[in-house]
Amino acid sequence: MSDTYDGFWLVLKVPENYMWAMAVLAANCFLCNTVGMGGGKARMEAFTEEHMKKYADIHRENYPEGEVTPGGLPDQGEGWYARDLPLKEWYNLNVAMRTQKTFLEQMPILCILSLIAALYFPYVVIGALSLNFIGRILYVMSYEKRAIGFVCSLRCSLTLIIFSFWASFNV
Known about the structure:
By secondary structure, the protein is mostly helical.
């Protein structure tokens, strides 16, 4: 076995502003994680210690090796522990979980398309991801009136799809 690599090396030349596009992508990833923390807060407010005590006996009966976990895990707001939550707690928990899930569902698309499109169109990617960042904040802040935040994020995705497709023909 040789100490040197004798395989194929690929050198990828990226535009000067590629790093800024990746920085805005990283900011979107950070925001996605931050939005997830809101779900944890809503979970702790809904699945209080008092609420979870109701399930201790049935949990022990079915899972003698463990205790009921704080925060109602693995319930995501539509399961066993959530079934008798007051409407306000149930609603707040589900809104928090849904806003984070919709963001998380879009992250693989944003990441892959941004990496491709930024090879030829870094300014477009910077703009689209900045719009997505603002749109996601608006989406979380006003879930019931999600039109503005949703439209911002949708335009970002469509822009990245178009420019990724275009970039793939420039290779």
